[in-house]
Write a structure and sequence with these properties.
single chain; 396 residues; alpha+beta; 2 domains; two-stranded parallel sheet; 17 helices; globular
Length: 396
């Protein structure tokens, strides 16, 4: 998803779900911040580096691609941007790629439910916002994996875009991927800037959907191609339809996280709540333009009648630094706890499935910590929850 969806569309979904304007802004900020919480930013804020939820291009270029380096890359991108749909999926063909195959991102898997339940147990708006980013990306990043792989993440010449002809029909156009970072993507001519081609399976250029540039994040994109992981059977991706389902699933999940409903189930969508705005939103998605911030912002104003500031990250760093001993109670402090919890949960689930692509994992609730100082925050949070539960038991 592009930043306009993670920020403005998340605000709209939260407000429709019943959160106040102020709460919706905080949820939207955290959803968008997932794409900005890099080690570089955390170092500047003097915050725990293990809470990174993304990696800058320069950080990736400096990463080692040995086993340890690849595991660090995979922990970040699998936990927050390419959530696996089925860690136990049956695999046909080459078993050497089994573990990577089981990292294939997609919506409505068990890990999505785990992510929503984790946000529910946390109870903070920052955890809720983070979970909305993860949910949205399961739709946009479908069929890619959150680690480096030429086999799973590459493109080939057989790549076609389906474009509305304005008369209710469609025509197809061949997509051209090129490597020229100085030239923006050209939606009119189906020219998209991708990472350089590398034959090395674990080259950082082959991370996620880098070989397809931002095409999978564009709401208007409809495309078909033949990935090697599917034995070159054709796959069709319909972003306008998928993104609308993602928005309706966010509303449904947010109602649960607000406490308005009793449970969260996968493959469930609140189409009824979105119906008054369906035509407007679907019209957004059909526009062949890279960014939809103006359109989503107009809808947010229509919903609440209130404006809010464009997304920015520096105020959060300043608040965190100035808070001193109380920094855990700042916006960034709460986000860090949510990020550490999400990364720990996903890494542990991947490890328990017998998949070592994220490295070894220890369940801190059962066995304590094994040398990762930053994760003491999670243990403190867990102990606080246990104390509160005992207190409630005595009161009852």
């Amino acid at each position: 998803m592009e930043k306009d969806f993670h920020y403005y569309a998340t605000y709209c979904a939260a407000y429709i779900a019943g959160f106040t304007h102020e709460e919706s802004v905080r949820i939207a900020w955290s959803a968008a911040f997932v794409d900005n919480c890099s080690k570089t930013f955390l170092a500047r804020a003097k915050a725990p580096l293990s809470a990174a939820t993304t990696q800058l291009q320069m950080e990736l270029m400096e990463m080692r691609t040995d086993v340890i380096g690849l595991q660090e890359i995979t922990r970040i991108w699998t936990s927050f941007h390419f959530l696996p749909r089925d860690l136990y999926a049956p695999v046909k063909g080459a078993k050497r790629y089994r573990n990577k195959y089981r990292l294939l991102c997609g919506p409505n898997g068990p890990l999505l439910k785990d992510t929503i339940e984790l946000a529910k147990s946390s109870g903070t708006l920052e955890a809720i916002g983070l979970s909305m980013h993860v949910l949205a990306d399961t739709w946009a990043h479908m069929y890619f994996i959150g680690t480096t792989s030429l086999v799973f993440n590459t493109s080939n010449y057989h790549f076609y875009e389906k474009i509305a002809d304005g008369n209710g029909g469609f025509y197809e156009k061949h997509i051209t991927f090129r490597h020229n970072p100085g030239i923006p993507d050209d939606a009119v001519n189906s020219l998209y800037t991708a990472t350089p081609f590398s034959l090395r399976e674990n080259a950082v250029f082959n991370l996620g959907h880098g070989r397809l540039t931002h095409l999978p994040d564009y709401a208007y994109a409809r495309y078909r191609y033949m990935p090697s992981w599917k034995n070159y059977e054709e796959v069709y991706k319909d972003n306008p339809e998928d993104f609308y389902k993602a928005f309706c699933q966010m509303i449904y999940a947010l109602k649960y996280l607000r406490g308005a409903t009793d449970r969260f189930e996968t493959d469930t969508y609140d189409f009824e709540a979105a119906k008054p705005y369906e035509h407007e939103i679907r019209t957004f998605f059909e526009k062949r333009q890279i960014e939809l911030a103006k359109e989503w912002k107009a809808l947010s104003l229509k919903l609440s009648g209130k404006e809010f500031a464009p997304f920015e990250i520096e105020p959060a760093a300043v608040e965190y630094i100035d808070a001193g001993e109380d920094r855990d109670n700042t916006v960034l402090g709460r986000f860090i706890k949510a990020a550490l919890a999400q990364k720990s949960m996903v890494t542990n689930k991947v490890f328990k499935s017998g998949n070592l692509t994220c490295g070894y994992s220890v369940n801190y609730e059962e066995k304590g910590l094994k040398g990762i100082k930053d994760y003491f925050k999670l243990l403190e949070l867990h102990n606080e929850d246990r104390i509160n539960q005992r207190r409630k038991g005595r009161e009852q």
